[in-house]
Write a structure and sequence with these properties.
Blueprint (H helix, E strand, L loop, with lengths): L2 E7 L14 H13 L4 E5 L12 H17 L4 E4 L3 H9 L4 E4 L9 H8 L2 E5 L17 H18 L7 E4 L8 H9 L2 H4 L6 E2 L5 H6 L14 H13 L4 E4 L2 H13 L8 H6 L9 E13 L5 H6 L1 E12 L1 H6 L8 H13 L6 H13 L4 E9 L13 E7 L4 H4 L18 H4 L5
Parallel strand pairs: 1-2, 1-8, 2-3, 3-4, 4-5, 5-6, 7-8
Antiparallel strand pairs: 9-10, 10-11, 11-12
The structure holds pterin-6-yl-methyl-monophosphate (PMM).
């Protein structure tokens, strides 16, 4: 299920809640209220990023966010901090935050990648083209979906080069940041280019100006920010159907309610465009099945011993995928199911790729690959290392790891390990498709 990130702006000037929670006590109370409403994580920000906003001093930002981060974290609440500054991120992490939500995608502060790499925390890389004062000057694209995906790919590469692992990263298209309303709708209509990055997706549409414009009065007056929650909730549902990892919203309760309905109706387990085409309502037409691959073999260099790193050895993988396969069963079309040939290629690429020390880590990477397809509801991987360097007679050494689709606070902080890739589809499911557009 898609997680809900509640917005807590400790600022005087944010778009819809500026000034309401500038006082520390009021901010903490609001954070607790968002949790009571069902938020999975609270995103605490101390610097407004509304279009045209000027920057604040690092110390001012710190003074605003730190007591709130500390108070909420102390109560066991999952906290992210919305900051572009490495110094603020480091202090917030020390105060208990578990996620850095960096709207600049690491561009604003060259030290951010090091802080994140050292902490091993999750890092939201949002698409960004410059500070709020001037960002709308950069809202020029030929193909906004392709360009946003390409620029985020660069940010992901830079993060990886700085020592941040893929498991730490989350991407965000940055709706409203150097984007016109039309750009935002195009991005929401087609996530396929972003999906190619293979990372969890955060969507932040809440109360943004493009919704005010959509809902404007006949005389052109935009709908006020605080009256855009129903439209925001509709986007959150569409984002969840498209496989988003989380939505960032002000009105947590209505979002949680809407996602509960989606879940009860089976929508959060049916993100496949293909499945929806076969049965657009799709509420009672699912069939679960198992796809398995046994004895997939490849030569790799994983292991703790230097000799294993140097000489390599054979690894064998068994994969068992629990899948939604009603659409394929009805249509007899390979496009409607998980291709085990393609899956095998992807698993082999991991086996023969970057060496890791532990079979557990290897198994986790393989589970993540399996769960990247939205039709896979659960995946179990067994990795065999029959030639492990043991001074005894033995036939096999294995590790088995299972990952279930779904997200929770543990998953947000990466400690369940298996859900990172799970929230992305790779079968072409997207909002445009859900709205019946050709993509
Ligand atoms: N939008 C705002 C602030 N932080 N972070 C992420 N990751 N994604 C967003 O879309 C985003 C963000 C601006 O909205 P606000 O002023 O209402 O908080």
């Amino acid at each position: 299920m898609t997680s809900v990130m509640g917005v807590l702006n400790v600022t005087p000037d944010s778009l819809s809640d500026g000034g309401r929670y500038l006082d520390t006590v009021a901010a903490i109370e609001h954070g607790l209220a968002l949790v009571a409403d069902g938020a999975d994580i609270i995103d605490v920000g101390g610097e407004s990023t509304r279009p045209g906003a000027a920057r604040v001093d690092a110390q001012v930002e710190l003074d605003r966010v730190l007591p709130v981060v500390a108070a909420l974290s102390e109560q066991g609440i999952a906290v992210s901090v919305d900051t572009m500054r490495a110094s603020v991120a480091a202090a917030a992490l020390a105060a208990g935050a578990g996620v850095i939500n960096d709207v600049s995608g690491g561009l604003a502060d060259p030290d951010m990648a090091r802080v994140v790499a050292d902490a091993g925390c999750r890092w939201v890389l949002m698409h960004w083209r410059g500070h709020s004062e001037h960002m709308q000057q950069h809202a020029h694209y030929t193909d906004v979906c392709a360009e946003v995906a390409a620029e985020l790919t660069e940010r992901v590469s830079a993060a990886r080069e700085a020592g941040v692992s893929a498991e730490q990263l989350i991407i965000d298209p940055g709706l409203g940041f150097a984007k016109t309303a039309e750009h935002n709708w195009q991005l929401l209509g087609d996530f396929s280019a972003l999906r190619e990055l293979g990372l969890p997706l955060l969507v932040g549409a809440s109360r943004k100006a493009f919704l005010g414009a959509l809902l404007a009065e006949n005389n052109g007056v935009a709908r006020p920010a605080t009256q855009r929650d129903a439209a925001t909730t509709a986007i959150s549902v569409l984002a969840a159907l498209a496989g988003a990892w989380a939505v960032r919203v002000h009105d947590v309760r209505s979002t949680v309610d809407a996602l509960a309905v989606l879940h009860a109706a089976g929508g959060s387990e049916r993100k496949s465009n293909a499945a929806n085409r076969v049965n657009p309502m799709g509420l009672d037409n699912t069939q679960r099945g198992v796809i398995a691959l046994h004895g997939l073999r490849a030569f790799g260099y994983h292991g703790v011993h230097p000799s294993e790193r140097e000489l390599g050895q054979e690894f064998v993988v068994d994969a068992r995928l629990e899948c939604e396969m009603g659409a394929a069963a009805r249509s007899d079309d390979l496009a409607h199911t998980v291709s085990y040939a393609e899956l095998a290629d992807q698993l082999i690429a991991v086996l023969t790729g970057e060496p890791v020390r532990l079979l557990e880590t290897l198994a986790q990477r393989l589970v993540t690959i399996c769960l990247a397809d939205p039709r896979v509801l659960a995946a179990e991987i067994t990795v065999h290392k029959p030639s492990a360097p043991l001074p005894h007679a033995f036939t096999d050494a294995t590790v088995t790891l299972r990952g279930d689709r779904g997200s929770n606070v543990g998953a947000l902080f990466g400690d369940s390990g298996s859900n990172v890739g799970a929230l992305w589809g790779n079968s072409g499911s997207n909002v445009g498709a859900l709205l019946g557009k050709q993509t």
